[in-house]
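I'll show a typical protein example:
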Amino acid sequence: MIREVFAGSTSPPTKPSQKPGTCSAISKRSTPPQTSPTSGARWLRCRWSRASPDLLIAGLHNGCLPEAAFIAAVVQGEGIFPKGKAGAARKDFIFPDDPSDFAGEYRAFESAEAMGFDPRRTAPLGIHARGARDTAQIFKRLLALRGGDLRSPPDFQNKREAVAKSILAAFSDQLAIRLSQGNLACRLIGNRRGRLDDQSCVRKADAFVACEITEVEARETVTHLRLATAIELPWIAQVFPDEIESTDGADYDESRRRVVRLTQRRFRDLALESKESDHNVPLDAAAEMLAKRVLSGELVLKNWDAQVEQFTHRLSCISKWMPELGLPTWTEEDRIAAVSQICHGAVSYKEIKEAPVWPTINDWLSSHQRHLLDTHCPERIRLASGHTPKVTYDAEHDPFFSAKLPQLVGTNTTPTIAGGRIPLLVHILAPNQRPWQMTKDIPNFWANGYPQMKKELAGRYPRHPWP
């Protein structure tokens, strides 16, 4: 395609050929293809990034080839300004009304050229003489290859739209949208975040393309966006009409703890425009978002209490112990379904915080199924003494109950559940209400454990009955 364009066609590229990444990083790993010595191939012999051919093609199509060639030269060269803090002089060449940081780069380039690229003269201005000379060589070579007029300098101000559209076509994966006019934080395509350089002239633009993206590793990775060009939102649809879509969905407002309706215009995965509303919120999406936060523990259902938890554990246990009963299981999927059902119809945490939970859980079983659960996996058991301790269930541990010594009198066999298949673990409590022994063998306790218990504790608790 490049060969065809530079042989005479001026059709713009339909899609950018570059992959996500920085211009400089791509250029290091890019190698010129092995092609015949045509004019198109000569373009590629220069130190190209994968986006540069598309930039030049778009520049030729949009009537801004000198500007596109200069941008390509800056991107491919060493840089007109030194890297890092030494490049702070860039701000002296950038004007507030510039549509692109490359306008400031060109002013600095002209100054260096007028000084003959003498480092002794350019250094006080903060200009990197060798980098500027390198840029000049690439720039002139590019223009000469296409028969460009070297006397016609780039005009970034009057060709701002053409330049912006050309850069957008070549570096579309480096399009950024400002999060707020109050700071320099931005969103980029690919669910990335970055920060616009504080010297950039496009600090007031809602959107821009950054031709230089660098990541700095510190306590956290910071992505810096430099060499930016302002982009007006309608231009994106003009350059990529088939990649703009409108969506109507929902989003969760963390500060208000509620779901809102969210309508967006998106370019690929990047939201160009967003509007939130509390009206006509999609209820299915709202239930899913609220349920997700309940399940993660971020939001708490006040009425999802111990009774509910015990019911779910009992159901989980009985389905494993007595599968022939055909009772429903209780898995994580069931939990998600139950929470989603409780949240359905609500759009805020305020609406579900005190929502009744037990009616939803209680309706999980039919009356016959509930009878089977209560029979084989009861909430309480009756001991010979008449005491009815509560059984505690856990899907990962043995079911147990706690009882003081007098309450166990007359119980000479270990209580069981699930049709006698599951012996209960008994927490035998000392007078201080702490477990003195845990056993599944009550006969052995009366024969061996009780005498030892009485020997150790009777003196300390003389008023406690010791049968």
Q: What stands out?
A: Residues 129-145 form the longest helix (17 residues). The chain is about 40% helix and 20% strand. The longest strand covers residues 207-217. The radius of gyration is 37 Å.
